[in-house]
Amino acid sequence: MTARVLDGKRVAASVLDGVRARVEQCRTHGVHATLAVVLVGEDPASAIYVRNKGKRAAEVGIRTLDEHLPASTTTEALLELVERLNRTPDVDGILVQLPLPAGVETERVLLAIDPAKDVDGFHPDNLGRLMIGQPRFVPCTPQGCMLLLAEADVPLRGRRALVIGRSNIVGRPMAQLLLHADATVIMAHSRTADLRAEVEAADIVVAAVGRPELVRGAWIKPGAVVIDVGMNRLPDGRLVGDVEYAAAAERAAAITPVPGGVGPMTIACLLANVALAAERRVPA
Ligand code: NAD
Known about the structure:
single chain, alpha/beta, Rossmann fold, 6-stranded parallel beta sheet, 3-stranded parallel beta sheet, 43% helix, binds nicotinamide-adenine-dinucleotide
């Protein structure tokens, strides 16, 4: 079997078309969807992410406010900025690019974001709502994974879904979304005793670890669906996922490539969350 490739670029483009239309619709009601992007310091990867987000946002008509602060910024100064953005009525979403420089209390900063503007969906209030099935904003990467599964018509009800990785921003919310879709969800993590056996039993595998090709292709159950969230840069410059792609593609029914799978979905879903926030500002 050779897997169907789940093309994140194509699905993301169609998500972005929908976002563009929604943003235009908001403008007809006098609401211009606006995302404030807070970047602290000079981390080159973060600078690239922020630039890409700004570019994509502009393409769909979302305005971005860039707040670039020096690496020496204190937690207090950052909290003040977040408070100001919270109070600015025409800011729909606030994104604080992570990681913050060492010395800044990341948790305090993220907690200070108004949950109604938390378009990343990382605030405990939003993660809690997701857990009880009443999401306000669904975190972007897991949201993107679910859209890829839906686009590929992958049945989830009653099927065994394995999520590898238990971070608050990917693994945990992903497991909640699969649970809400009636999958039987197993979570694996760094202390899982036999990862191979878990993968071999899974109908759906979502890998979100950050270890190049940790999941071997030979472990994949024939006909399983593989969503690879991992993005790992090898010393030779190649970008690979957490799954051994070529060998896994021989066995899986469908698989996401890296790059070009989950990555483009994340940013598209972020902008979809900004559109959602703007729609909530449209007068009834
Ligand atoms: P994280 O470091 O916060 O979490 C990694 C998780 O992997 C932890 O829960 C840990 O328990 C688990 N883990 C570590 N070693 C393991 C092992 N040997 N076996 C099983 N589990 C193990 O990472 P994160 O923020 O969730 O990101 C995970 C990966 O996804 C990274 O490669 C990151 O770059 C990538 N990522 C991609 C996107 C995207 O848009 N494509 C978005 C977010 C993260």
